[in-house]
Design goal:
Elements (H helix, E strand, L loop, with lengths): L4 H15 L3 H4 L2 E6 L7 H17 L3 E6 L10 H7 L4 E2 L25 H9 L1 H5 L9 E11 L1 E4 L13 E4 L3 H8 L4 E4 L5 H7 L4 E4 L1 H6 L8 E3 L5 E9 H5 L3 H36 L3 E3 L3 H11 L1 H10 L1 H9 L4
Parallel strand pairs: 1-2, 1-3, 6-7, 9-11
Antiparallel strand pairs: 3-10, 4-10, 5-8, 5-9
The protein binds (2S)-2-hydroxybutanedioic acid.
């Protein structure tokens, strides 16, 4: 039998008295925010800022618990946990959504965006924004895009032109586009959870990877990679998501306050992400354990020419119009 509102309130009060906690605490909405990176990264900082602002503005009504570094759920399990209601918020990389909406594969196309400002323009366009609400029928609601940054190639050998990658094993996120990207340069892609990458690189299960500076630094990947090529060849950004049923079922006043906080945090993350990546890049150079390689414009062009055929392979899934809209964002 369904409980009516006054009976459930009375129950909450009774339970609270029994446990020696206040009624407000007993009725508290708990938001578990799980992610796979370190607190110091753009996503890690965003999750902590969200937690802080919710505490300041919503007091006892809502409690946010942040679980960084795959400490609660790692890749592969976190989406399932969100759909089951075991966590309420995540910010997976855009490379991890192809099971839910193949159009999101657009963000993995190599050499699509010339820089993070172009990414920003696309994400703010009507085409970019509609992708946030495109998975509601699957129970997933996008609340915003959070930047990390452009990816750099790393390996245990010098990567200057695409032929250098031949035969090397590269760790990729669970994305078919990224698999094809490495096959295009005749390398061997291996899908692997983020939490396994350090060990994979250390033991030689894989020889290389692609990550933004903030992930290379905070996970210490640079300690097990002799070379990093400053390739900026692709993007690693996130979609901040929630369980649609959970979010839509929140009391209106709480949801509206949370929406405002999400907007504020999103702006802050996106302003700070570049600075975090720039400073982590410098820390890696200062550590002196890894050689950072600059590409000449001609070399970068060779990588682009080698990888760009991947666009055509996924045009059917993504849609040519969407690719054109993203490409247009390169013109400021
Ligand atoms: C990865 O698996 O490399 C990234 O998606 C990790 C992250 O969340 O930045």
């Amino acid at each position: 039998m369904a409980l009516n509102a006054s009976r459930s309130l009375a129950l909450a009060a009774g339970l609270a008295a029994l446990l020696g906690i206040t009624q407000a605490q007993a009725e508290q909405i708990v938001i578990k925010f799980s992610h796979v990176v370190a607190d110091s990264t753009p996503k890690g900082q965003g999750a902590l800022m969200f937690q802080k602002l919710v505490k300041e503005r919503l007091g006892d009504k809502v409690r946010v618990e942040v679980y960084p570094n795959s400490s609660l759920y790692g890749d592969g399990k976190e989406m399932e946990a969100l759909l089951l209601g075991d966590v309420q918020m995540l910010a997976p990389s855009l490379a991890k959504f192809d099971k839910y909406n193949k159009q999101l594969q657009i963000y993995d196309l190599p050499f699509l965006f010339k820089d993070i400002n172009a990414v920003d323009r696309f994400q703010h366009s009507p085409e970019g924004k509609q992708l946030l609400t495109s998975m509601q029928d699957k129970g997933v609601l996008g609340l915003g895009y959070w930047h990390n940054g452009m990816k750099q190639l790393s390996a245990n050998k010098k990567l200057q032109d695409p032929r250098d990658a031949r035969g090397l094993k590269f760790r990729v996120q669970s994305s078919n586009v990224l698999e094809e990207q490495f096959k295009a340069v005749r390398a061997i892609p291996r899908k692997m959870s983020f939490s396994e990458v350090y060990q994979g690189l250390q033991t030689g299960v894989v020889n290389g990877a692609e990550n933004p500076w903030s992930n290379i630094y905070s996970q210490k990947f640079y300690e097990v990679q002799d070379y990093i090529t400053e390739s900026n060849h692709g993007l690693l950004d996130y979609m901040l998501i929630t369980n649609a049923k959970f979010w839509n079922g929140l009391p209106d006043d709480v949801r509206s306050e949370l929406d405002d906080i999400v907007e504020e945090v999103t702006t802050a993350v996106n302003e700070e992400a570049k600075q975090i990546n720039d400073s982590d890049r410098q820390k890696i150079i200062d550590a002196g354990t890894t050689t950072v390689i600059q590409l000449t414009p001609e070399q970068r062009n060779e990588w682009r020419e080698a990888m760009k055929p991947v666009w055509k392979e996924f045009e059917g899934d993504i849609g040519k119009d969407l690719i054109d809209a993203a490409d247009k964002s390169n013109q400021s």
